[in-house]
Specification:
This protein is an alpha+beta fold and 209 residues long. It folds into two domains: 79 residues, 3-Layer(bba) Sandwich (FAD/NAD(P)-binding domain), CATH 3.50.50.60; 95 residues, no CATH class. Helices cover 37% and strands 10% of the residues. The longest helix is centred in the middle third of the chain and has 21 residues. The structure holds flavin-adenine dinucleotide (FAD). The site of flavin-adenine dinucleotide has 19 residues, from α1 and β5. Flavin-adenine dinucleotide binds next to α1 and β5.
Length: 209
């Protein structure tokens, strides 16, 4: 593209930049997508080993998948989507953690999130740990889940911030631990979702020709 044709410069070829450039290009607006790295995708990065196994080093999950627009994009790309429950929502092997205990933990976690949602409505913000049941034998594991979600245990996570995050992420789905919350995967490389959006669509190719 000649320099004079560029009306908009998009800086950064992650999902957001690619989507913006895609839309501008398809609307006939001359645009230049600039990326500092030698690859597209930003924080979407999949490494595929010799056996063909795809390991997502960045994003990998389609959150709130039943209303996540990336699902339609994946389908339009002809990609398969794994709609089975994520591993942590399925029973695990019973080594040292019986099925009954797993169910008990699941119940405790669900009750914790319900209390947390309630606590977050208080006028004054408090640490999310206020929603822990003091005598609950699963508090250690519930705290471990927080380190996975937020990088810190519940006593360092604001109840209001966590609640806001959940509402934003789940777009109104108020039971994050509930099995009805859809969390799907594009197993054959999540990174191809935004990356393939960088390819010219038919319409764009035609208008360019
Ligand atoms: C480990 C990990 C796991 C994640 N898991 C999930 C998940 O399961 N589900 C989910 O939905 N989200 C997940 N995310 C978040 C998701 O990856 C990001 O929200 C999304 O990829 C961000 O896209 P973006 O385009 O906004 O930014 P980025 O992907 O960060 O893209 C920004 C791009 O801009 C480039 N850039 C920056 N500055 C300049 C400059 N000055 N000049 C040129 N280029 C520049 C960068 O190199 C980069 O390529 C995860 C993120 C990480 C890191």
């Amino acid at each position: 593209m000649a320099g004079g044709d560029v009306e908009v410069v998009v800086v950064g070829a992650g999902a957001a930049g690619i989507a913006a450039a895609r839309r501008l290009h398809d609307s006939g607006v001359g645009c230049l997508l600039v990326e500092a790295r030698p690859r597209l995708g930003g924080r979407a990065l999949t490494v595929i080993d010799e056996s063909g196994f795809a390991l997502d080093l960045g994003c990998g999950w389609l959150h709130s998948a039943d209303r996540n627009p990336w699902c339609d994009i994946a389908k339009a790309q002809g990609a398969s989507i794994d709609t089975s429950l994520p591993a942590w929502a399925r029973p695990s092997l019973e080594f040292g953690f019986s099925r009954a205990e797993q169910e008990e933990f699941g119940e405790a976690m669900g009750s914790f999130f319900a209390r947390l949602e309630h606590v977050a409505q208080n006028q004054t913000d408090v640490p999310s740990s206020a929603a822990l049941d003091p005598g609950c034998r699963w508090n250690g594991l519930i705290n471990a889940v927080s380190t996975y979600i937020s990088g810190a245990e519940w006593d360092q996570v604001s109840a209001k911030d966590f609640d806001r995050r959940q509402r934003r992420e789940l777009a109104g789905d108020r039971r994050p631990w509930h099995r009805d919350t859809k969390l799907w995967r594009r197993p054959a490389s999540h990174a191809r979702l935004p990356r393939d959006r960088g390819r010219p669509s038919r319409r764009a190719t035609e208008s360019r020709d």
